[in-house]
Structures are given as C-alpha cells and as structure tokens.
C-alpha cells in the first residue's frame, strides 16, 4: 500500500471512529501530518483524493471540511474505492490491453491518416497544465480510442474500447493517488504520437507496450501484492 493510501486510510478511520464528524474542519495540515506520522505531501495528496470522491470539501482560503456524508454520497464514494481494491479482474483487463493495444498501435502507424495523427497532438494539448484525475482519464481513453480507430480494423477498435473501458476506475484511482502521473502519462502519449507521425511501427509498438505495462505494474503493486 502506498504512503498516500496510508494517509487516506488514516483520515477515513478518523471519520469512521467519529473523531471527525460531518461538517467538522480538519486540523491544520502541519498538526495533522505530525499527529498521523505522515509527510505533509502525503497528507495533501490524501486530502485531494478524498475531496475528489466527495468525502472532504476543500474550501479555498477557509480550510478542509468533512462533507455532510449523505448516505448516497458516502456509499458511492467508498464504493468507488472498495470496488477497485477488491476487483482482481481489473488486472486481467490490463493484461489483455498489453497484448492487444501495442499491435493495434503498430497498425495505426501505417494506416492512420496524417490529419488524425496531428489531431492526437491537439488532443493532448487540450488537457492543460493541471487537469483533474477525471479529465486526465477521459483524455487518456480518447487518445487510445482514436489510435484504435486509426488502425483501420473496426473489430479490433471495438475490442480495444471494450477492454479499455473496464479499466477506467483503476486509471482514475491511479490519477488520484500516484504522484507525477499526469506528467508521465502525457510524456508517454506524446512519444507514441510522435512515433505514429514518423510512421515508426516498431517504435510505436514498443512505446505502447511500455506505457500499458507501467500502468499494469502499478495495478499489480497496489491491488494484488498489497497485504
């Protein structure tokens, strides 16, 4: 389990134990980090993650508060996390992606129209400097969908979209909890786009394999290998 996951668990436990109640303001960052034995950076990432799934409400210039914890909101938020950590089959979908998508990417290197390859660069530029996890994943899904379509095989494109869609929650949780994931994802996507633009089939296949395997390895460490 990552340090950020430890921080998330610590804050959740304070809520479950009743130490933090709906509407309560969290202690100062420095005080809470020291009390929980965490770095301020890990605590900050945990707060960000819990705010994205609506357990905490970050009010700029005011502080961070526990939400009303309306049962429907809380169940949806916690269900997001619990479902991800219990669903071992997500790793199987990433394994399937690693087998299928590099081949499809190699096909796109020879078949994808130039204007569509240029459109991939525009798509990546549209993400901006500080996207949310949801925005990053939406951009990621669209990037891979366009490449699959560019391979010129509708059957493979449909298969990629189906398999990729089943990994959305895992990718969102990675975007929330893994430090530097936005920069890494964009860097890898840009490298793939450039390989496609240069019609470098073997390079495109290799880059796609490394890209997907990196996410798969994170899933394996976070989901499967944790005690």
From TrEMBL:
Spell out the Gene3D superfamilies in the cross-references. Answer: GntR ligand-binding domain-like, Winged helix-like DNA-binding domain superfamily/Winged helix DNA-binding domain
Report keywords, A-Z: DNA-binding, Transcription, Transcription regulation
Q: So which domain of life are we looking at? A: Bacteria
Q: Which InterPro entries match?
A: GntR_C, TF_FadR/GntR_C, Tscrpt_reg_HTH_GntR, WH-like_DNA-bd_sf, WH_DNA-bd_sf
Q: Does the keyword Transcription apply?
A: yes
Q: Which Pfam families match?
A: FCD, GntR
Q: Which residues form the HTH gntR-type domain?
A: 1-69
Under SUPFAM superfamilies, the record lists: GntR ligand-binding domain-like (SSF48008), Winged helix' DNA-binding domain (SSF46785)
UniProt name for this protein? FadR family transcriptional regulator
Question: Native species of this protein?
Answer: Amycolatopsis acididurans
Phylogenetic placement of the source organism: Bacteria, Bacillati, Actinomycetota, Actinomycetes, Pseudonocardiales
């Amino acid at each position: 389990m990552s340090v950020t996951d430890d921080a998330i668990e610590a804050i959740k436990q304070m809520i479950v134990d009743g130490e933090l109640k709906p509407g309560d303001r969290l202690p100062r960052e420095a005080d809470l980090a020291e009390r929980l034995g965490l770095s301020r950076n890990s605590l900050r990432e945990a707060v960000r993650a819990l705010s994205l799934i609506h357990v905490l409400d970050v009010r700029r210039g005011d502080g961070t508060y526990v939400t009303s914890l309306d049962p429907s909101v809380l169940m949806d938020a916690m269900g997001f996390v619990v479902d991800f950590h219990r669903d071992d089959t997500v790793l199987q979908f990433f394994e399937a992606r690693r087998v299928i998508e590099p081949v499809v990417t190699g096909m796109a290197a020879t078949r994808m129209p130039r204007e569509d390859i240029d459109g991939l660069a525009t798509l990546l530029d549209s993400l901006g400097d500080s996207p949310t996890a949801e925005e990053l994943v939406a951009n990621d899904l669209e990037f891979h969908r366009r490449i699959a379509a560019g391979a010129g095989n509708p059957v493979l494109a449909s298969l990629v979209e189906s398999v990729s869609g089943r990994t959305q929650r895992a990718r969102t949780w990675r975007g929330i909890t893994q430090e530097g994931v936005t920069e890494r994802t964009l860097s890898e996507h840009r490298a793939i786009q450039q390989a496609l633009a240069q019609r470098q089939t073997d390079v495109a296949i290799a880059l796609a394999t490394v890209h997907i395997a990196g996410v798969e390895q994170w899933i394996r460490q976070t989901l499967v290998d944790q005690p």
